[in-house]
Amino acid sequence: MKALDIIHDANANLWRSKLRSFLTILAIFVGSFTIILNSAINAGVNDFLDKQIANMGGDGYLEMMPAEAYDSFASMISTSGPQEYTEDKDSTNQTAYIKDEQIEKAKKIKGVKVFNVLPNASADYITSDKIEKRYRLNLNLVVDGIDFDMSHGETPNTAEDADYEIAVNEDLAKVLGYDNVADIVGKTVKIAVPSTLKCYTAIKRSECHTIVEAKVSGTQAPGILSMGGSRANLALWKRINAINYEGMPAETNRSYQATADVDPDRVKEIQKELEEIGLKSMSVEDEVGMFQSFFDAILIVFNIFGGIALVAASIGIINTLFMSVQERTREIGLDKALGMSNSKVFLSFSTEAIMLGFWGSTFGILVSMIVGNVVNKVAIETFLKDFPTFQLTIFEPMTMISIALIIMFIAFLAGTLPARRASKKNPIDALRYE
Amino acid sequence: MKNVLLSTRGLKKVYGKRDSKFEALKGIDIDIESGESVAITGKSGSGKSTLMHLLALLDQPSEGTIKLNGKNTSKLKQRKLNRLRNKEFGFVFQSFFMNTNDTVINNVILPLKIAGIRRGERRKRAMAALETVELGDKYKNKANDLSGGQKQRVCIARAIVNNPKVIFADEPTGNLDSATGAKIEELLFNLNREKGITLIIVTHDEELATKCGRQIHIADGKVIGDGKGVAKHDPSFIEDENLDGIRDKNHTKEIDVEEE
Question: How many CA atoms lie within 13 A of A309 on its CB side?
């Protein structure tokens, strides 16, 4: 008997008792639907978090600053959205810097692979040709080798001799006069960079500003982790640093920011050791960890529900097939009398079980995709409005296929009991059976 | 030259163990030649059905040998036995045994499907078999919609679709009225005459038995008569199931054991 015939017959046999098969498939469907939708949400959330983590430099990436400077910095990042710049309120605390001995100690900590001290660079505001207003600029450096998640355009060129380029937050792009944020890509923005020395003598702060023009290479979607900051490339960063320290002795050009690439498995320990030498650090884990573990816990609970549904469905499969074996006793006897082997009888009943699993998981995939897409659309328009890159459900074909295969395998296992009973039937007894 | 198709020596079949032990066959020696039409007769419980099951290789004897074409079948593996039944034998049963929800042609196709024959080929052969039993026009019908006689003809088509050497028929007319039964008999004997298919019919219908070329009469697990025209003179035919009470002592004992 050929494989195709077995599959064809198994399917035909299922539809002989339509209601019974349908109900069994429905039970499998409930389990597979739950698990598939869960995995899609899991994929969606993880994809979103991965993008956020990549934006921050990956799992082993640490940003740090002297503990004294941390407080003022923390107050800066806690504000949400672009804020209008006002001259008298804003000045940068540059008294705290990373000392040479701290650098030496930090480099010796086990698990620290790369330790970079960032030159100091601060700008007062950003504006464009399109607007009169000026907006406070919170500047970060584009770290080389990290793939940023850009909503439009590209990551700024990290080469040392590149043109001045900057990536801005979408919210900032809007207030800079680009309602359609994609339009800002390739346009020039103006950045006011203070020269520390000149500012001491200036009557108005604007007198000590040098306006630097930079090209917007791309925009970033606002995310839970992008700290509302814009990202300058190294060339722009160095130019700003040079203006900041114009005319000052070289030893005053100090850093109060450092980044490190560390062993992802020792992040917590390294952070503790850094704190002991007076460096306050932030890891990606700090930002994402809580959120992720909370989410994982919810998904585990739902997956348990799905699992329980599948166990119940498996019992349904066993029951259905036992009834089927009972009803078809004479048919099995005839098949055997006509030369069908025990293994083929076993195979045809297990194929029926697998077909139940196949239909259950196929409907599970289809319906969860429909539901998932509807939920996605609703979510983007409502509670995820602020996170346009957040796709709540992502259906990865490989994941779907492997879930379906696992469910079919579970169905097969459930089917082995009745299939074994069928294969063990004696043809003579089976033919006598009334 | 004689061409012995099936040959048994010292064939015994024992059911149960110890106290409930029951000897259904007590040593059967028969030779069936190719192309013969044989009736195995005897009343219910005589062991005639057991003998047929053993001859058809559906069951294993407790003792003794069955040779098919001179080959000892007891040494064959299950897989080979399945193949033999599939290729060399055809079966017709009293209560048809067909998938009544399926179409006529799908019922006929079954042995070919089990043999793993391609779709086109098996359809062609099934249609030819249906033409032989004059049901070619009904191939699309549901088996359930057929009359009893038509059902049995479909079963005969199923039995001949693999061009078997032997057809085993277990009370083929038992569920049919005499007119329809006669037609089925004619069909079976035609196959025997024209295609040389060996016919082994298990029956307690005297008329049907006498139409066969040879009658083997079984009683109490033994052959008590074998040859042309034996059945006619066999006293046990008088005591059919519906004629209770005229049993001889031997037979009463046998019934008792069976009822245990």
Answer: 24
